[in-house]
Amino acid sequence: MTGQEIKEMDLQYNLHSWAKQGSLHPMVITKAEGIYLWDSDGKRYMDMSSELVNSNVGHGNRDIIEAIKKQADLFCFLSPAFALEPRAKLAKMVIDRMPDTMGKVFFTNGGADANENAIKIARMYTGRHKIMSRYRSYHGSSFGAGNITGEPRRYALEPGIPGFVKFFDPYVYREAVSFASEEEATRFYITKLREQVQYEGPDSIAAIVMETVTGSNGIIIPPKGYLPGVRKICDDYGIMMICDEVMGGWCRTGKMFAFENFDVKPDIVSFAKGITCGYVQLGGVAVSKKIAAFFDDHVLSCGLTYSGHPLACAAGIACLNYYDTAHILEHVNEVGAVLGEIEEGLKEKHACVGDVRYIGLWSAIELVKDKATKEALVPYGKDPDGVMSAIIKKLLAKGFFTYSHENIIMVAPPLIITEEQLREAMAIMDDVLCEVDAMIAL
Ligand code: PLP
User: Which residues pair with 49 in a beta bridge?
Assistant: First the structure.
């Protein structure tokens, strides 16, 4: 098929995510290798968002492809009720990489159903019904995960599930007050959260769910002490602490899991994306030994036909092995430091860059109209003139593929990117930000 034919057929028969269907112009991608994508005209792009921040090992990884083929030759699918080698092995590998307090895994198809099951498990285990989560969060688009999501993508589900309560994020850059230190910021946010927990009735709260580091909504990195502060609230009131590591897990932050950066042990961890890097889709929920033991004599009322799909588990095993053998964590820390330096330089140079936030190879460039007032380049929840999509198109025209959310550009390349490739890509970003500077100066 020609590129044009693919595009026409796609638009005629596919419904695309989060979009008005009548105004779409999807790129036609025909090849992907390493950190690169090629469109049907042969133009090459650097995949600077790792697709949806899931292609951690890049495209065309032979180890993973061969593992899937080998498993496919053996058997592609058998029911989750059986004990299967790939599922058993991968569950052990997941638990081996988590804190020693964690016990077992329930596999899902992706991130949303990982969160669905995480909140179900917390409700079953505690016998309570309320779930607290934050406004600037995305946890998936299904009904439960969409209801714990705080940003506008939850609106289509409203009125939401009773007892799902939102609290404010530790978004220091946009806080109405300023703080002298990270510890002071932590005191502020934890005091407010504790107060809100009191008002909600701690005995009714099953879980507090957080993206350990907020991803799509702008790489919001909690101040020092914040997560231990949430842990303490959870411990004081018997509330389950659920860390959503769907985007932040699996080496993205320079640690295997984002929560390791903050010296905290969650009760429940949801994960997806980087466990297989999309070679076959997979997600899961890891629970503490205590929770796992509870389900020894209580029914785990969760089930999915494809829980722990053998092909996905084979891909997951190869993927986790690859992180180790290719020393991905060390690489992320080295190249991530370069990304941070470059972004600090962009913030200093460009009038349109209000803030940069980065951890490992995961970062956000927050665009403003005015650095002093911090007025966002586009208003929250709206971009009527398509300003952000025009910026993304400019990047794309120069071979830099990524996406934006609100007034934020995501920079999260595959974790195999070299320093040279990163510098080449960020020079493109620099050029485009010059154009945005010129635009806001008008
Ligand atoms: N949780 C987080 C933090 C995410 O970033 C996402 C997706 O981007 C999800 C959950 C949902 O994952 P999925 O799209 O696999 O359902």
Answer: none
Continuous segment of H or E residues that includes residue 47: strand 44-47
Instruction: Output the residue whose Cα is nearest ligand 1's atom 10.
Output: 139
Q: Would the CB of 215 count as within 6 Å of ligand 1?
A: yes
Ligand 1 center to 387 CA (angstroms): 25
Contact by Cβ (8 Å): 117, 289: no
Q: Which among 325, 343, 377 is the end of a domain?
A: 325
CATH number for the domain that contains residue 360: 3.90.1150.10
> Where do the DSSP E strands lie in 190-293?
205-211, 240-244, 268-271, 283-288
- Nearest ligand 1 atom to the CA of 211 is 3
| Total number of domains constituting the chain | 2
pLDDT digits (tens, 9 = 90+) for 261-312: 999 999 999 999 999 999 999 999 999 999 999 999 999 999 999 999 999 9
SS3 for 205?
strand
Domain boundary among 303, 325, 347: 325
User: Closest by alpha carbon to 377, among 397, 358, 351?
Assistant: 351
Question: Using CA atoms, how far apart are residues 35 and 402, in angstroms rounded to an integer?
Answer: 12
Residue closest by Cα to atom 1 of ligand 1: 139
Q: Which atom of ligand 1 is nearest to the CA of 52?
A: 8
Pocket test for ligand 1, best of 210, 246, 268, 285 (most atoms within 8 A of CB): 246
Question: Relative to the CA of 142, which ligand 1 atom is closest?
Answer: 16
Q: Quick check: 367 and 376 in contact, CB under 8 A? A: yes
Convert the pLDDT of each residue in 97-136 to its tens digit. 999 999 999 999 999 999 999 999 999 999 999 999 999 9
Q: Is the ipTM of this complex over 0.90?
A: yes
d(CA 374, CA 278): 37
What is the whole-number distance in angstroms between the Cα of residue 54 and the centre of ligand 1?
10
* Span from the CA of 287 to the centroid of ligand 1 (angstroms): 18
Q: Which domain holds residue 162?
A: 63-325
Q: Please tell me the residue having the least CA distance from ligand 1 atom 7.
A: 140
Q: Are the C-beta atoms of residues 289 and 99 closer than 8 Å to each other? A: no
Of the candidates 24, 49, 79, 68, the residue with the CA atom closest to the CA atom of residue 322: 68
Q: Is 246 in the pocket of ligand 1 (CB under 6 A)?
A: yes
CB atoms within 10 A of CB 155: 11
